[in-house]
Design brief:
The chain has about 140 residues and is an alpha+beta fold. The protein has helices at about 25-30, 105-110, 115; strands at about 15-20, 40-45, 50, 65-75, 90-105, 125. The strands form 3 sheets. Strands 1-2 form a two-stranded antiparallel sheet. It has a two-stranded parallel sheet with strand order 3-6. The two termini are about 25 Å apart.
């Protein structure tokens, strides 16, 4: 069946969307910040997840500074704790494209990131899960 006649959905329905902030050196430097000493973790609500080509809804309470960043999303396929060695081995179900959409004014004013990044539709992902990928050898770009 040709893809032109198909509506692509998000390739997963996540239980959690856990994100790592400031993990791209060039982006951190672009914003004038220092690299964090430890990972900056934040979550997005699952209601933020939408499929590719679905519209991002601009919130009425934060309409002027909505921004996005292209991301490579790792999909964890099974429950795991204290994974040693190669972290992807046996745990990673695959990778997909994601956009980290943010209301920058909320992010700046709240002092934390959850609300700014969790508005409905603020996490477009897909269109598919890639299982044969070297994450150290990919180019991530927005479109």
């Amino acid at each position: 069946m040709p893809l032109a006649g198909v509506k692509l959905l998000a390739p997963i329905e996540p239980v959690n969307v856990l994100c790592i902030g400031q993990n791209y050196k060039a982006h951190v430097e672009e914003g004038g910040a220092n690299l964090p000493k430890a990972p900056i973790l934040f979550m997005k609500t699952t209601t933020a997840v939408i499929g590719p080509n679905e519209p991002v809804l601009i919130p009425k309470i934060a309409p002027t500074e909505v921004d996005y960043e292209a991301e490579l999303a790792l999909v964890i396929g099974k429950t795991a704790r204290h994974v040693a060695g190669e972290p992807r081995a046996g745990v990673c179900a695959g990778y997909t494209c994601a956009h980290d959409v943010s209301a920058r004014d909320c992010q700046r004013n709240d002092g934390q990131w959850v609300r700014a990044k969790s508005f409905e539709t603020f996490c477009p992902i897909g269109p598919w899960l890639e299982t044969e990928l070297n994450p150290l050898n990919v180019r991530v770009q927005g479109g």
